[in-house]
Amino acid sequence: MESKHFGLTALRDDLQAPIEARRFGSGWFAGFFALVLAIAGFGLVVALRWPGLFATPELAKLRDLPGFRLGVHVTLLLSYTLALLSLLLRPAKAIGFTALAIGIAAALLGGADVQPDEMRSWGVFFGLDFFIVNLAVTGLMFAPI
Fold this sequence. Notes:
Elements: H1 8-15, H2 28-49, H3 51-54, H4 60-63, H5 66-89, H6 94-109, H7 128-142
Helix pairs in contact: 2-5, 2-6, 2-7, 5-6
């Protein structure tokens, strides 16, 4: 199933590929998991960069753990690896390129070593970190089904 269009339509078509095109070894699962991990890594980098706006105060203790940034780094590395594997195996490249682009954007924001940007606390936050944890857990748990 070779797609001749680009953008979100190509990504949607690649994600909704028929079951036959999603068989193990086709690169679809690698691309899908790369996309989930890249979105999770990007969200965590954004939450680390602007904690006053995108992070919940309840998860501040988790962000301060020594292994948290290592976990973010491993998440980004896994997304790069799986995206490249998907690009190698899959004829339709939309999932792999999208995951790679999101992972590179996370790296350009500072990756796992990003330092918080000083900003005034308004007492309002979006809780992106909690959303990302839920996205990663449910995405990795229910995707094989």
